[in-house]
Amino acid sequence: MSATEISLLAFLLFAVVGLLLYFVSPKRFKWVALVIVSIAGAFMLTAYWIIFIFVIVTIAYISGRLIDRNNNKYNEEKALLEKEEKKRLKKEYNKKNKIIMFSFVGVILLTLALLKYFNLPLGTLNNWFDKYYFLDILFPILGISYYALIAISYVVDVYRGKTIAQHNYFKLYLFVGYFPSLVEGPFSRYDELAPQLYKETNPEYQDVVEGFHLIVWGVFKKIFIADRAYMFVETIYGDWGTFDGYIGLLSIVIYVFELYADFSGYIDVARGVSRLFGIKLTKNFDSPLMSRTVGEFWRRWHISLGAWLRDYVFYPIALTKPMMNLSKRLHGNVKEWVEKIIINAIPLFLVWLCCGIWHGSGFKFVIYGMYFFIIIIIEMLLEPLNKKLFKKDNWCLHLLSILRTFIFVAIGLALFRAPSFHFFWCFLKHIPVTDKVSHFIGVGTLNTYDFRLLIVGILIIIAVDIIHYFKPQLKLLNFNIVIRYIILIIMILVIVFFGAYGPDYSDVAPMYALY
Known about the structure:
By secondary structure, this protein is mainly alpha-helical. It has helices spanning 3-24, 30-46, 50-78, 83-116, 122-129, 144-160, 169-176, 190-197, 205-238, 245-276, 294-300, 303-318, 321-330, 336-359, 363-381, 383-389, 395-417, 421-430, 448-470, 481-498. Helix 4 runs antiparallel to helix 6 and helix 7 (169-176) packs across helix 8 (190-197). The chain is globular. Mean pLDDT is 81; it is low at 120-141.
């Protein structure tokens, strides 16, 4: 088995140990068991860099408590004041809370920029650690962006009054550093996740069963599909000039399924492990391959990040006074769909700029964000025409729109995968070239046997998306128990006997672990 599969197995065994600790813990201390498991899990993954998680939690804790203290002071002082004085006092405390909130967001974003984009102080510290074998940790898996955005959502929600500040430091740590979400998320909201984390009951039988189903499905996607697709895509992107142009095109298509299977596979494992504890993490994918527009695709792909950007970037910008005044001036003077485009353009631009920068540093990621921004704006411009075309339920047009969306998405994700924009541009220009004779089967370590298994896996993931799209209520849990366990046993056997691991396979780390 490769290091990745060993790590995945170790994580699942770690979750089982944590589950046993959770079961034997007294009701009032079950959350303590989760804190212990989460801290231990973070240390296993990040080693001494766990200190940054504690730093983020500490700053978020202090900020939340300060805002909460100001709110309490306001409630105490307003009781003896007249209406106008209450307004003045409220405005004064709102200003103080706003300063606290923006200061926190600024510090967190600055920390994120130093760690993620400038490698400071990690470069110096890593060189120092490297001198001592017992501290030879280098820069391990640390989803610093995840912790930063989770903490920001908590403090902003406290500022908005949506959430009451948590007075227990370790309970707040549990929300930010909950161990199933350590590597790739999904992004949770405090008001949705916290009550589940602090509950005093054991999981029910249905929780364990559904959790097991999710884990098996996630491992299947990761090991059977994603790791096998990686071998093909990595070979092409590593030396694209030696292969036929059509193989480059095929690698762009396969990369979509590689990323989908890898990312959603890890998310399903995280959701499954969490469900074993009776805790439901937010759903992060909803049949994205069935999307008819690029905008719809991003509402179905990485749903939790999209929701975060909507609530903490899009709406705060769209609801500012300048944007509201612009909306009033446009209303009634231009067509409704034109007004919608103009009002949405500026917030969407900033959302996609943030999305690109969040995924990584460099000019390539800015272009990546702008690429999808432009396509979504064009789709909004063509919305009246699309409504006329799709007025009747024409399956042929729907299929064409799905294929069109897939092409646009595949090109954007190819840019995401490329090491640079220059590489991406040269790669696209090379695709029509077919003067070299080569075969996609046998590229790298992906032989005929592997390629056929990969195609089967891709067809399975497409079929599941189609079923969930048209029959969202149809779940494996609803099947007859005999049929259900036959399917699960088959999947486990397929993972064991046909999974992409062993001496002939590459070690594939989580693709979203560092974003």
